[in-house]
Design goal:
Elements (H helix, E strand, L loop, with lengths): L3 H17 L5 H7 L6 H13 L3 E2 L8 E2 L1 H11 L7 H12 L4 H16 L2 E5 L8 E10 L2 E8 L4 E7 L6 H15 L7 H5 L11 H16 L6 E4 L16 H7 L2 H8 L8 E4 L11 E8 L7 E8 L4 H21 L1
Helix pairs in contact: 1-3, 1-4, 2-3, 5-6, 5-12, 6-12
Length: 338
């Protein structure tokens, strides 16, 4: 275990390196921080931190920079999530509150995150499988053609056109709509198959084929993996940070184009906790020079999707974590209101 003083020295090194982009020396540390020890003691502490792998000496510079291990300890033990100012909170609320539908919410969220953190932002669309049915609408397009519109509690809307085996009148369609919503409105998706399994039997024999067609389409909509959607913004932010990537930025940019990679970075939807993966903790080889900060968002206690940012390991962790957490909270509130 590191002593409290050496933890202070590590915190100071991380803060200075993130702020100045320059390797940090013992003289600078004693001048900028109230460590209450001599420069010689600071040099000894830095030597111990280097020996234990928390900092390293780049090239022949006299200064030191944090390693992945050093950043990890900083995040786990030393970083305090930086709260947003009242003005920043109002700006977030006003910007996201103007969204007109789910696509607009996701689009505004990803742009806002990229602007606040000056990193690459990723926002996953709410998962259908973790949602609740708000309403099922049935619209007649032709005598034997119906449009099914599924609306979720997160504001997501799915539409399907159904070619029915027989004609269905407006009154019969209205009856089906009413009975269907009576069973599934307000229910989680995973309960819907059980709730509608005997619904067709309550209709007249001649209407059952059409009812079964509607139910089959509804169930297909529920199980489709349409939650595998996300939006990315701010990739250009990385181009001003090319010195943070030891080899080249190209592999990072190529990895960010792969949706499977991004979904892995976001992690499990059901996990609402904030996650910070630093450098070599990332699963993709091309992203070992980056850090990823993600958190779940939702309309209740459970996350329906995740959002986050990707940037270099030389990241303002307290500020980034604060922005990601605040945006996720506001997105959850807005989805609940809408």
């Amino acid at each position: 275990m590191l002593s409290e003083r050496r933890l202070q020295v590590l915190r100071a090194i991380v803060q200075d390196y993130v702020g100045t982009e320059e390797p940090v020396g013992s003289k600078a540390l004693t001048e900028r921080h109230n460590l209450n020890v001599s420069p010689a003691t600071v040099r000894n502490d830095m030597a111990a931190l280097e020996e234990e792998g928390y900092i390293t000496q780049p090239h022949t510079s006299a200064g030191r920079v944090p390693t992945d291990k050093g950043y990890r300890l900083f995040v786990d033990r030393l970083a305090e999530i930086k709260p947003l100012s009242p003005a920043e909170r109002r700006a977030i609320q006003n910007f996201l509150g103007g969204a007109v539908d789910l696509d607009d919410v996701v689009g505004r969220t990803v742009r806002l995150l990229a602007q606040l953190t000056r990193q690459v932002a990723i926002v996953q669309y709410p998962s259908l499988t973790r949602s609740t049915v708000r309403h099922v609408e049935l619209l007649q397009l032709a005598p034997a053609r119906v449009m099914l519109v599924l609306i979720t509690d997160t504001g997501r809307v799915e539409q399907r056109v159904i070619d029915c085996p027989a004609q269905i009148g407006e009154s019969s369609l209205a009856d089906l709509r009413a009975r269907l919503n009576a069973r599934v409105a307000g229910e989680p998706f995973n309960q819907v198959p059980l709730l509608v399994q005997d619904l067709a039997e309550s209709f007249d024999r001649e209407d059952r084929p059409t009812v079964n067609s509607v139910l089959a389409t509804l169930l297909e909509t529920l199980v489709e993996e349409t939650e595998e959607r996300l939006m990315v913004a701010g990739t250009a932010n990385l181009t001003r940070l090319t010195h943070d990537f030891p080899l080249t930025l190209q592999p990072v940019l190529e990895a960010l184009e792969e949706q499977v990679v991004l979904l892995k970075l976001l992690g499990e939807t059901k996990d609402a906790q904030m996650q910070v993966r630093i450098g070599h903790e990332n699963p993709h080889e091309s992203l070992t020079s980056t850090s990823v900060v993600t958190v779940g968002y939702g309309t209740g206690q459970e996350a329906v999707a995740r959002l986050g940012v990707i940037g270099p390991t030389r990241m303002d962790y307290p500020g980034t974590m604060g922005a990601v957490r605040a945006v996720a909270r506001y997105v959850g509130q807005i989805l609940a209101e809408k």
